[in-house]
Design goal:
The complex is a heterodimer of chains A (409) and B (146). Chain A is mainly α and 409 residues long. Chain A is built from 17 helices and no strands. The termini of chain A are far apart. Chain B is mainly alpha-helical and 146 residues long. Chain B is built from six helices and no strands. The longest helix of chain B has 30 residues. Classes of the chains: A mainly alpha (409), B mainly alpha (146). At the A-B interface, α5 and α13 of A face α1, α2 and α3 of B.
């Protein structure tokens, strides 16, 4: 019973923790602009993140070492440093977007300007990272993120024509006036949002924090292979309600407030309250994950003591990196830059940096010296290589498409 | 080096969301149509918010944020469009037409925001009445001049 409870809790946490500000914004924006014509990207992204998260989790369980530690050792310090720089910058940009997202969620609930919330949000994120136990932190915000199920309820309550939804999703077509480059740009944004690099750093480092061993691999796999796809359904629900409410009205989603509006229209004040709670939990949880990931990447590369499994005094440099990244992120949001724009750019730059994260994971997961008998099988390698080719294509196309489409205008 | 600098400047302008100048009437017309389409989207969103408000489906703080965002977004759209120099006298007509629609929509959105902050939620339906027509006009303009 205890094991069943642990597995269920892990799956629920994985579902609730799957969605972050990038998923919320990208899915609502795409649903409002393209209806269901880009829904196919979500399963493609979910399969990709499942594949590489499982690999990185297996690496952590087999080696009891963090991904960046192994990347530097396996690929050398130069390649590792290039990898670290890109991954850290993208993670810091994502953290900035998450801080903005939490502040915007609080603004929606209180109408107090989000800029006034930013310092408090940054302080609370730091305090939780500093004080709260790793598993407690992961569970509370992961389970809180489950409130986003309200988007699925709202989708059902809005009464979609299911056969039409299936037709639109399975026969993607461009609306008149929409160009193919813009369509592809948003496809890349959705893919980048689903496969954000910090997710695997956090997942694998979390495995080391929780002292995973070979016996924990089945539990980890159930979290990934059941929890992540169900989390992907939440992304689809966010896209779905936007497609039902905004797309027919010709409204494009530009703010976080609009993301939640369909839940109010479908379910009233209670639905909206649950949606705002879910958005808060999802963005706050992701702020914790990105904050920790910033610390993990730097500390693991330089070989410093890291993690919440030791007292902060013993991992002072790890905590200092987290603190400085949080302060920098909060300062960027306080410049009054639009947090939603930061989010949009963070997911596109995530797409650009994808190969730097996923290629080393594939290499390390194939190395019997680290993995022993838990080394990648033939199927994982075939699928991993196919995804790597896709990731390279996405990475190469992201910036040219951003320039050609004026960032999706 | 010059090419790299030019590219960097272009990317910086792009990322900053700056409007590029118009060199012909047709180019200006396309920008006007794009502006009208963006404004129609904001007005459409405000109409959905009004629907949530009049159906007692959303609390005041949330409505306040949505109307404030809509007003501010529309102001940005208008400022960006009005910052573009009309290339020919014929372009002035388009500028006036779009400008008038945006000003009118901006005034309605401002009134909605004021009424929400004063707690006059019952009056929102009446105040928002012109938005439906403005939405239709903006849509029609965008379609005609695309």
């Amino acid at each position: 019973v205890k094991r069943f409870f642990a597995i269920t809790l892990g799956i629920l946490t994985a579902i609730g923790g799957f969605v972050d500000i990038g998923d919320l914004v990208a899915n609502a924006l795409v649903g409002s602009r393209y209806g269901f014509a880009l829904a196919w990207v979500i399963p493609v992204g979910v399969v990709g993140i499942c594949l590489f998260a499982e690999m990185s989790g297996r690496v952590a369980a087999a080696s009891q070492r963090g991904v960046f530690d192994l990347i530097r050792e396996r690929l050398g310090p130069r390649w590792g440093l290039a990898n670290l720089t890109a991954s850290f910058l993208v993670t810091a940009l994502t953290l900035t977007a998450e801080i903005g997202g939490v502040a915007l969620a609080l603004q929606l609930a209180t109408s107090v300007n989000y800029l006034l919330w930013v310092p408090m949000v940054a302080f609370l994120v730091w305090l939780v990272i500093w004080r709260v136990k790793f598993d407690r932190m992961e569970q509370v915000f992961g389970l809180g993120g489950l409130a986003l199920i309200v988007f699925a309820v709202a989708f059902w309550k809005l009464g979609p024509d299911w056969s039409q939804v299936w037709h639109d999703a399975s026969h993607p077509a461009l609306e008149p006036g929409e160009g193919l480059p813009t369509y592809l740009y948003y496809a890349i944004a959705l893919f980048g949002a689903a496969m954000t690099p910090y997710e695997v750093f956090f997942f694998s480092s979390g495995g080391v924090e929780e002292r995973w061993g070979a016996k924990d691999i089945p539990v980890m796999q159930s979290n990934v292979f059941i929890g992540f796809p169900l989390g992907g359904l939440l992304s689809l629900a966010v896209m779905g309600v936007a497609a039902l409410v905004f797309f027919p009205a010709g409204v494009q989603v530009d703010t976080l407030g609009q993301v939640a509006l369909p839940t109010a229209l479908a379910l009233g004040k209670l639905g909206l309250a649950v949606a705002l709670l879910g958005i808060f939990a999802a963005t706050f949880g992701a702020a914790l994950e990105t904050g920790l990931s910033a610390g993990y990447t730097v500390a693991q590369y330089f070989g410093w003591q890291w993690g919440k499994f030791v007292r902060p005094l013993q991992a002072a440099r790890f905590h200092l990196v987290i603190l400085l990244t949080l302060v920098a992120g909060a300062m960027v949001v306080l410049t009054t830059v639009d947090p939603i724009k930061v989010t949009e750019y963070s997911i596109v730059f995530s797409a650009v940096a994808l190969p730097l994260t996923y290629l080393p994971i594939l290499i390390v997961a194939n190395d019997p010296e680290y993995m022993g008998e838990k080394v990648n099988g033939r199927f994982a390698n075939m699928l991993g290589t196919a995804y790597l080719a896709l990731i390279l294509l996405v990475s190469a196309a992201a910036i040219p498409l951003m320039i050609a489409t004026k960032a999706g205008q | 080096v010059r090419r790299a600098v030019a590219l960097a400047v272009a990317v910086a302008l792009l990322l900053a969301g700056c409007a590029s100048p118009s060199f012909s009437h047709r180019d200006y017309e396309r920008k006007a149509a794009h502006t009208a389409a963006e404004a129609a989207s904001v007005v459409g969103s405000a109409l959905l918010t009004v629907r949530a408000a009049t159906g007692d489906k959303a609390p005041r703080p949330y409505l306040d944020v949505l109307f404030t965002d809509a007003e501010s977004t529309l102001g940005d759209i208008q400022a960006t469009f009005e910052g573009v120099q009309p290339p020919e006298p014929a372009s002035d007509e388009l500028r006036t037409e779009v400008g008038d629609l945006l000003t009118e929509a901006g005034e309605v959105l401002a009134t909605l925001r004021i009424e929400v902050r004063r707690g006059h939620l019952a009056a929102l339906g009446t105040t928002a009445e012109p938005l439906g027509q403005l939405h239709t006009k903006l849509d029609a303009f965008a379609e005609e001049h695309r």
